[in-house]
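During the reporting period, our protein records have gained a structure token line. A sample record is set out beneath this paragraph:
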Amino acid sequence: MNFFKFVSLACFTFLSLTLFSQNRKQLDSMLFVLSKQTTEDTGKVSNLLRIAKGFNKINPDSSLICIQKAQIISENIKYDAGIAKSVESYGNYYANAGESQKALEYHKRAIELILKLNDPYTEARVLNLIASDYLNLNDYPSALDNFQKSAAIFINLKNWVSAGASLNNIAVLYMRQDNYDMVLKYLKEATTCYRQLNDSNNMHVTLANMASAFSMKKDYKNSLKYNRESLSLTHSKNSTNYFVGLMAIAIDLIELKEFDSVLVYLDQATIGFEKENNNYFLAEAYYTRARFYNELPDSLLGKFGIYLHDKSSRIISELEKAVHVIDENTEMSMKRDILQLLYTQYEEKNDVVNAYRLFKEYISLRDSINNEENKTGLLKLELKYEYEKKEAELKLQKERKDALSKRELDKQKLLRNGFLSGFTLVLIFASVFFLQRNRIQNEKSRSDELLLNILPSETANELKKYGTAEAKNFDEATVMFTDFKNFTQASERMSATELVREIHYCYSEFDKIITRYGLEKIKTIGDSYMCAGGLPLPDVLGAEKAVLAALDILDFMSTEMQRRKEKDEPFFEIRIGLHTGPVVAGIVGIKKFAYDIWGDTVNIASRMESSGESGKLNISGSTYKLVSAKFNCIARGKVEAKNLGMIDMYFVQKTI
């Protein structure tokens, strides 16, 4: 088996080494000094963004504040590069938080601004970030496209280090798909870039990656070749990288049954890991030694000073040492393999107690790993389902075009034959024509229904007419978020089938309610439901309709909660939040497309929901101004909203 992880060279966070080493206290001190600087210039923007990067891992809230200040200053002094860098930093902030979709939105906005600056280096760097976002969202075609664009720009600039890093990232993409031939193709291109600079450090990592790819292909001969070349380029013979390289060679030799030199490499690696107290790799080293003893033919035992009756004891000794140093960082698959080999050795020695104890641990761990693999498989199936559902529209459109073409051909054929065959064939043609027309009409209705279930009618019509749909700005949209407050507790009392059925029931009722008031459903995110009024067509009554819909949803959930309480069944409690403001709306993606909205209005609406209370409708000051004449509202004063400061909020009770 191959324990060695495939290393990506292109993280592209570009933190300076000095800043990366700063601790929280130092960053706070730097920020304090900067806050005393009254001059607002490009230098202050750059320093704020550097500090934001330092805070990104250790204090994300402070990072976000620095980015916001940098953007405000950049806009005030009309510093276009600073605005672009601030937007990019928002993307990095969300990427670090694991919110890849939001990260992608900001990185794409950043690239639009950067393209106006004629800065190809920054363009290529942000393209790489966009590609990484797509990669995290499992959109491999889009990730590949952006990685390739990034690499092409870097190569054109003769920036060989960055070009090699982009090519390495493409290799990572193909590694995720187990396409090892393409992995090797791009890694070889990366080595060509690094050879331009005689960059031995990046060459070392890339060659190790090539060895790992060959190992995945079970081509241990080439794996050994590239591991040896990589090891020869390691700068220090007293480093983790060097010791890992030694162990990789030892593993290749075991797989190739070339046992003579295995212990030479493995002994050096083990001693190095022991000196470093590196338990992660030390466990691997002990396990590899156990594998060596286990796979060593009995005829060669004497050559290594091992007696036949002593073989099993040596294997157990190494495996017990591996178990002793296993920590929380050790990969589950390696723990499983160690336990599997260990219990089989105790079994062979007829040590039933230890064999049974370890077997139970092995089974438990194996099942956990299988569950994780099953979850991954289910996620892939879900993504495939969504993709195929949206692809169905394109398929139906193609079928419709084919049917139209066939109809024309049949028509011409029947007309031509009609002159020869007389009136009977004309009647046959008429029958075929009408049947075909009905079939086409049915297919059109099916395709239109499917498209309208995904997109608003205006956007769907634009997409059908022009093949694309442009994003639109709405100055006054009212965004609604709902959330089940006690979702986790309630779901623990339901089976998976019951949980899905109950959520489907609730969301179906929400769909009916917002349809009555002309609101547009945007999406569901787990137990959160999002919709908006005042789009895709502007509506001066959008805020009022959104409030009425929200109150109806509260009434429905209250009735549903009472009904389930009487039956002693688990129930959901709901919070709803509304905010009115400008948004941008449009289609996301080219394959797995979806109608979505963006802007601070969306974030504030989300905060209205999370800052509200169970069973109540919480609205912002901007929504209150539009609906206060028709609804009885209770002022809450200014309430703290996470990352947004103090915001005026109101609870809506009923119509006046």
